[in-house]
Amino acid sequence: MKLTPATQPTIYFIGVTTSSSMIMSVFPKWAKFLGLHDAVIKGIDLKLHDDPARYRDVVNFIKHDPLSRGALVTTHKLDLFHAASNLFDEIDFYANLMGETSCLSKRDGKLVCHAKDPISSGLTIDGFLPKSHFNKTKADAFIIGAGGSAIAISWHLMTMLEEQDRPRNLFIADRDPVRLDHIREIHAKAKTTIAVSYHLVKSADENDAIIAKLAAGSLIVNATGLGKDAPGSPITDAALLPEQAIIWELNYRGDLVFLDQAKAQHAARHLQIEDGWIYFIHGWTQVIGEVFDVTIPTEGLVFDEISKIAAHASGIRPQ
Predict the structure, then answer these.
(1) Looking at the 3D structure of the chain, how many domains does it have?
(2) 247: helix, coil or strand?
(3) Residue 122 has pLDDT above 60, yes or no
């Protein structure tokens, strides 16, 4: 890790293998479209659960380097927050609540820590969820995985939707008891009437069993990373998805087995299927807007053009 002073306004992508990310080809096109003509993106690669001193070095560098404008943080959200939280001049509500950092920005000489996932996931859900869906269907929600994305999505379902239009029941499943304990602690701070249950699962069959309990029209989310970060799916081919269910695969590229399983039942079960493409767009544009202090629309013609630019620059044509 070599940190050299920026020579032009710079946003950093703090991850593990950032050079291979498609944002490296997308950002220059977005910057031109948004009028950020001299802005650049640079990757900072850190090991999983790296030495806290390295996280602090990165934060101190961004904080004190004049043209380093901020960062998007992935993978290291929890570790970076815990290692460097006393270096932040301000911490926003969601970052404090969830104990994580997904965005660093600067305002008036102050380094600000943000957690943007609750906003970007909420924008995505509100964009594809039919109006008054849960109020009309009395359906449930099942989030497979209990990591950062699951925390953000569940918080939106529990607190940000109108009270009468929240899921009847919320099921959370994960293989890691520590993650389940963490999400349970955060949920304890929510004011909600939703019945929430937490399930420590060891196999895809156990997720299938939860799916069998769900009402028609339920929302099922793959928040495990399986299909992108690791091969496979959190459910088996034998899982029978609820009639008229809404299936959300958070990934948009990779060997998306979960998405393929849903597509195989699409016609017979009358499913609505969503991938992670729009979530990716919201995730990055929320951070870019914060870092460069620009307003980026979250819908409409400008947002559609931003999505088209990303699709063209990356070579991806999401279905």
Answers:
(1) 2
(2) strand
(3) yes
d(CA 215, CA 193): 18
Quick: pLDDT tens for 270-317: 999 999 999 999 999 999 999 999 999 999 999 999 999 999 998 875
First to last CA, the chain: 37
CA 153 – CA 162 distance, rounded (Å) = 15
| 60 in the same domain as 151 | no
Q: What is the CATH number of the domain that holds 257?
A: 3.40.50.720
User: Could you tell me how many residues make up the chain?
Assistant: 319
Q: Are residues 236 and 301 both part of a single domain?
A: no
Among 295, 152, 294, which residue's Cα sits nearest to residue 223?
152
CB contact at 8 A, 231 and 153: no
Q: Which residues contact 73 (CB under 8 A, 6 or more apart)?
A: 14, 15, 80, 101, 102, 103, 104
Q: How far apart are CA 87 and CA 112, in angstroms?
A: 9
108 and 193 together in one domain: no
- Residue 84 token pair: 């460097």
Using DSSP bridges, classify how beta strands 90-91 and 103-107 pair: parallel, antiparallel or unpaired: unpaired
One domain, residues 29 and 51: yes
Same domain, residue pair 123 and 270:
yes
Domain that holds residue 31: 10-115+278-314
pLDDT surpassing 50 at residue 319: no
pLDDT, the chain, mean? 94
Domain CATH code at residue 284: 3.40.50.10860
Classified as helix, coil or strand, 107 is strand
Q: How far, in Å, CA of 183 to CA of 212, rounded?
A: 23
Q: How far is CA 310 from CA 2, 48, 316, in A?
A: 29, 28, 8
Residue 5 lies in a domain: no
Average pLDDT of span 143-171: 94
